[in-house]
Fold this sequence. Notes:
Layout: H1 20-48, H2 51-57, E1 61-70, E2 73-84, E3 86-87, E4 97-98, E5 108-112, E6 116-121, E7 127-133, E8 135-140, E9 143-150, E10 156-159, E11 170-174, E12 180-186, E13 195-200
Parallel strand pairs: 1-10
Antiparallel strand pairs: 1-2, 2-13, 3-4, 5-12, 6-11, 7-10, 7-12, 8-9, 8-11
Amino acid sequence: MNCKYKYPLRNSFRLERPTIKDAYMNSLATDLDARQTANIVAQLSELLLSPTLVMATTPKNLKLTAISAKDGASTIECWQLSAPFGSSSQAGTVGAVFTRLGDTGNTSYTILPPKFDGGLHTAPAVQYVAFTAGKAVLSLPNSPETATIQGGRNGLIFAADTADVSKQGHITKYPGKKETIALQIPTVNGEIPAHTVLHTGPC
């Protein structure tokens, strides 16, 4: 028996090869998308790095962990310094943000060996301490409160529990496997910068 199709397959599926014109137009679209993407990335980069945005995303005031004293005993507190951040006009840092820490005195650079135990002591002076590398753990003799300070961006603290206001002081240990680097920056005349105590415990 012979089988014949009564109706032609007019709408049969055909796989057509793209023409040269199609390939050219697709290429233009791809290049345009790439250029648009590059322009968008460049514009976003300029925006993210602009001083205006930096100012908008920078906190208005510096917060740092402080060792203070109350009723003859050392305390750990989170301070917000009153001096605000501003835009620098100084050569080399124009457009960057900065805040003033007040007048400071004779600064020392200290290298603390790994696993070093500083023991129980009062602050030798009213001072900023900037840990640039390593780790310090601060604790109090009659309190479970502790503060772990990682060297680097958030390594700045303030120590004000000198012997005239704290009977025992605080304990400092350096448990890291590498050296800890500390800059000790005393203030002139033992001045404590204007600040607000945000809460007890570290920032």
